[in-house]
Amino acid sequence: MRDVSIIGIGQTRVGEHWDKSLRQLATEAILAALGEAGLERADVLYVGNMLSGKVSAQEHVAALIADFAGLRGIEAVKVEAAESSGAAALRLGYVAVASGLADTAIVCGVEKMTDAVGSATASAALAMAADSDYEALHGLSLAALNALLMRRYMHEYGVKREDFAPFTVNAHRNAAGNPCAMFPWPVTPEAFMKAPLMADPISLMDSAPLADGAAAVVLCPTDRARLFTSGAVRIIASAVATDSVAIHDRRDPLFLEAAYLSAQRAYQQAGVGPAEIDLFEVHDAFTITAALSLEACGFARRGQGVRLAQEGEIALDGRIPICTMGGLKARGHPVGATGVYQIVELVQQLRGQAGVNQVKGARLGMAQSIGGTGGTAITHILEAS
Amino acid sequence: MRDVSIIGIGQTRVGEHWDKSLRQLATEAILAALGEAGLERADVLYVGNMLSGKVSAQEHVAALIADFAGLRGIEAVKVEAAESSGAAALRLGYVAVASGLADTAIVCGVEKMTDAVGSATASAALAMAADSDYEALHGLSLAALNALLMRRYMHEYGVKREDFAPFTVNAHRNAAGNPCAMFPWPVTPEAFMKAPLMADPISLMDSAPLADGAAAVVLCPTDRARLFTSGAVRIIASAVATDSVAIHDRRDPLFLEAAYLSAQRAYQQAGVGPAEIDLFEVHDAFTITAALSLEACGFARRGQGVRLAQEGEIALDGRIPICTMGGLKARGHPVGATGVYQIVELVQQLRGQAGVNQVKGARLGMAQSIGGTGGTAITHILEAS
Fold first, then answer.
1. What's the pLDDT at B120?
2. Are A366 and A277 in contact (CB under 8 A)?
3. Cβ–Cβ below 8 Å for A242 and B66
4. What is the residue-averaged pLDDT of chain B?
5. Fewer CB near the last or first residue (10 Å), C or N of chain B?
6. Contact check, Cβ <8 Å, A80/B99
7. What residues of B are in contact with residue A244 (Cβ under 8 Å)?
8. Cβ–Cβ under 8 Å, residues B350 and B118
9. pLDDT digit string (tens) for B126-166?
């Protein structure tokens, strides 16, 4: 297996792109990433997308996007792992280049959620990440499922709703420095508490917004990266793990076993532990998800994820900065694209190009993307070159 | 890259499985394939599926199936490339094992189409393989799109509707010898001509049926295959190519460029040409698709694909036997599973286990799976060991 680096990144602004279609968003990100790498084509294209079938009545999106991006003929397939689809596409791109199958690979995550007619449709589409027969069919949306987890967490650990506010405050503070963020403005703890409830105890301010967007990266073997760019960033770990999709089948609903497994596999591959990670792009689809992911990855003990946020350790100058460009909550969460946005942001940080959001001396960055309520978890660790 | 072999196969009967869900069908095929290989687990699972989101309101199917099949924790993602999703999953499994990432891989194709409410829904779901904005939105189903191709083919080459009958007669004849086939009974040329038209000139008898089913294979490096089985079959080529999804954007609608490209890449990788292939599992979603695929892969000159069938060269004892276990038309076409069914049948042939359908002395077998009207084509070449 060859060592793999990222040699180009591209992203669209995250938001409601009423004037752009799925293929247009993806093409914008792909051409930006290829442009950075100084390439016109690559050997293979992997597209991460979750919802285009339900929302846009369009499958076969990898071929569709390849053609529109001027890559006709290229090997291209779509990969889906619910909200972690973008990270799954990166995993495939990594394997393709590491194996020698491809010398260059494009990985693109894209989602067009505003094509869903009404929020009910978008919510139903997202619920496809849950167990359709045993959860969604009974009316459980993803927000409702995570509300069960949050309520249980509050009960088990004596935590209050307001204790989750620091996650949201931190994410919005960081989004202000990200020109691609959907909500680049600050939020106060008071505003957090006043937000309307979606599924008690989850409010709008606990929940990442529906959004459109696309992000892309270009990969090549590390020993050739200098031919393309001086800003290459190495992928030193890539790991996927799964768990029961339905919460009721898990041994312990408050422990994300797939998140734990994929983090452990990534740590092992990279030869590092959580103490050595300089920043962590966490999957904060809901504030409770951020807390559980921090715990599963070893950044906090069980029940202490929320404390980490309260103590300011997740800020840009804290022990483990998270959501450094706004996270899912404030950069926005175009689901199938999110896993690639996290990687684009890590590359910005590890290149020292994160502007006012720069994490000082960042050398090792980690991203974890989670599908459903934890049925899939995908972890990548990147290193500055 | 390591040499890769198939060490286990599994399949459910193709048909209307009203009593079984998506996860049950997939698990049945996976456990059968693992059982053949004498394995309880593998390192990675790739699931090929196209329609579960639209038809069953279920995405995240790789984690779902992994859990149900007793593989909790395993690396698992779904891959989608329209009707060639199953073949795309095999491609990923091949790369995972060839690269050294995985020592064992499970590849499963699965589709549950009878969960669609009414044939209109199934037809709309399938139309997601076409260009949603420029084709499907205007009412063009896949049958209608292929009817345009068939009509043009008849016009260009002076071919009549009845000239396509030999494809259907051959497929049904072979299905009679396949216990997993959906329609294991013969069809006469007269019955072919009497079938109701779906989209003139395409009739029910030109068209593969909607179906449920799952097929699976287990892969490992060839140098370890003997540890698991004496019936290993090598994968000596694996190639994916894409083209414009919309027909109107192609240089020549009667030439499947992706099919040509992926076949050429496969021939090059295997170091063989069409003359050396002993049997060909063709993507006969429609009779016209079979003709165009035969031509693109070099088994017939342009406009001569239909003649090949008329001259009996596609029969089990012909020059290039196709649909040897019934093909999409008569084995049935559970879309996301079909690409893996083709591989399971090739393995049966190359092991000499195809019973009354055995192609004498079969040593090299090829399968091609096509997404949409040709936007994706995936070709594999297998060799008996």
1. 62
2. yes
3. yes
4. 97
5. N
6. no
7. 67, 72
8. no
9. 999 999 999 999 999 999 999 999 999 999 999 999 999 99
